[in-house]
Design goal:
By secondary structure, this protein is an alpha/beta fold. 40% of the residues lie in helices and 23% in strands. Strands 3-2-1-4-5-7-6 form a seven-stranded mixed β-sheet, sandwiched between helices. Helix 6 runs parallel beside helix 7 (153-161).
Length: 186
Amino acid sequence: MLFPEEVLGRIEENSRREFLPIIGREKAETVFRILTEIRPCRPLEIGVMTGYATAVIASVLPEGCRVVGIEISAALAERARENLSAAGLADRVRILRGDVREELGSLGDRFDFVLLDGQKTGHLGILRKLEGKLVHGATVIANCPAGNRQKADPYLDYLGSSPLWETRHQPVGDGGLEISRFLGGA
């Protein structure tokens, strides 16, 4: 279980050159630490982009486990597959191309970890749909960039007021991460 330095460095370089947003090294290291503590086997990533965070998640998974990633852009989904293959992590990842609001219903899995990245205005709707697909104690981490924190307000308000969730904000990198634990489910 090694932090995937080489592939992340390559993706960071390409992302800077192409102005593609990624969670960045500080947040990736925080996610990595959390994952090594909770050891999920059925993780889901929403908003894969080029596979940056996917590589972090996949690198921590126990043998026989796979991360499911959903990316709306066909070109970015393909690039993520290429990056993950180059990192030797392709066998630990399943990338779906489509809109998460449509893809979630087709997934039969129940998840024990979710990294929620992508459109911040859609976080709450996605979270509400996810609740039926989470196991009790599942961890959900939402990327909350500083410039988008206001867009995430309905999501944050819901987490703070729902008895189904325990949540805390972790200031790290640009804005921070909202780290939540699901108290519902069976």
